[in-house]
Amino acid sequence: MSFLDEISSRLETAFDQVLLTELRESGPVPTTARELGEKIAQARAFLSSRGLRKGDRCALLAANSIDWVAMDLAIMAEGLIVVPLYSRQASAELVSMMKDCSPSLICCGDAALRDAIVKEWPEAPEQVLFGEIFDPKNPEDIDAGQSTPARPPSPHNDSDVVAIIYTSGTSGEPKGVMLTAGNVGHILQCTSGQLDILMNHQSGQDRVYQWAPLNFAAAWITLLTSLLRGSNVSMNTDLSKLATELRTVAPDYFVNVPALLERVRRAVDEQLWKTGGMIFGIYSRAKAAYMRKHEGRASISDSMWLALANGLVFPAIRKKMIGANLKALICGSAPLSLYTQLYFMMLGIPVLQVYGLTETTGICTLDDPRHVEPGRVGPAITGIEMKLGENQEIIVRGPNIFPGYWNRPEETAKVLRDGWFHTGDQGEVNASGNWKIVGRIKNLIILNSGHNIAPEPIEEEILDRLPGGQQVVLVGNGRSYLSALIAGGVGPDEVQAALEAVNAGLPHYKQVRGFRIILEPFTIENGLLTANGKLKRDAIAQRFSSQIEEMYAAKQAV
Prior knowledge:
Elements: H1 3-14, E1 18-24, E2 27-32, H2 33-49, E3 57-61, H3 66-77, E4 81-85, H4 91-101, E5 105-108, H5 111-120, E6 127-129, H6 130-134, H7 139-147, E7 161-166, E8 176-180, H8 181-198, E9 207-210, H9 217-229, E10 232-236, H10 242-249, E11 253-256, H11 258-275, H12 277-294, H13 302-312, H14 314-321, E12 328-331, H15 338-346, E13 351-355, E14 365-366, E15 385-388, E16 393-397, E17 404-405, H16 409-415, E18 416-417, E19 420-429, E20 435-440, E21 445-446, E22 452-453, H17 455-464, E23 469-475, E24 482-488, H18 492-503, E25 512-518, H19 537-543, H20 545-557
Parallel strand pairs: 1-10, 3-4, 3-5, 5-6, 9-10, 9-11, 11-12, 12-13, 24-25
Antiparallel strand pairs: 1-2, 7-8, 8-17, 13-14, 15-16, 16-19, 18-19, 19-20, 21-22, 23-24
């Protein structure tokens, strides 16, 4: 039985149980299993009328919504290949990806998205709006959609491609990652099993909050897992309301990215600093005490400050931040600062880390809820083999590994060798089998002394010491020492102090000896971050090449 058959069976048995709730400005819009099933049937009837054949690609271009979910499941259930795209991405980039995969149909959430695509690509294949699929004006279309009986999904072999998800493209063009029914089915069983442990095998519906765009592999897998488990998923439609919605929904868990958790941590720090008084004093002392405890340097008074904070401060922060039901935060997509993970653990909020790539169907490792080691991303999930190759590169094999990139056999051959997927990530593993991600091999900075340096751990440590900082990017390839570009509301003295503190614990060749503060933030919109918030290092180096040259020239002149 394929994962689509299992989800279809869940929809039939859940019937009047609410599975999805769209959180709109006008209020929540709940959808039961029966209603979702009807929407899927309506979408399948529409797709069937277009004469599409098994294996044809359908681009799915829309913001998160219940219609998006129905369309996604309908496309796969018809034996077609879904190509989910990021609705906020530049139209030129979207068109480039669609030209690469040659969709037979483009399904758009609204007219503005469709018009932007057509303007960029006048020869685009047929485009259709969700409104034309789910609210057709032709009475015959309505009858056809409503009278279509529930049909089982088209049969899928494990090797059948069900989705093409484009990578973020931190360097070079995004590549279409083909994922099969077997890839997805295996990962869903693994994620559901881990959530059983987290929820202590409780009966009833999990409460899940879904805010990340569903075109990303991790968010998509979370959605499919929730449907498989019959969870109650509340879907955000306005990121500015995220904090309020979290308190209202009071989820059991939800998936995050490090940038969000770090933003929340800094916001709490800033709010309590502005409040001042006794509460801020207890909070500050308890926070320092907790970090000393983790480092094995606890003093006699630390227990007192932690006890005071656990009684007077931390419960109020937890309640205001996320609600009363939270079992854990699940975090992936980029390295999470150890300091940030410890911060939430201090508040009594476990943070479970996940490591994976789109090519691994989103997941390779996942923290065991019963045994979390801060700073590590957990053990390999069931059925997955991981080991270290040349340059400490993590290589993986198992049923979660993609069969290749769409239409790019040369690129596929570079990363799939002898049955192993070469991740491009550097890592280490301890005696307990828990993995730690050190950095990306392609991000290594090679000084003219020959030293190879992974920039990520140093960048993370510097950023932790700069409350107003947004991003830190190390440069220095081919030069004699490292320097940093720092974006955010920070002053030179603050940066110098942070660098001195970090340098004190580093060997000479890893010390950062120069810096420039960048007023322009690194964002998705200005092309300096990928669609899921990762640094585009090549683009940053090119954009600020003159500042980098001036920085090194000034140091040499001293």
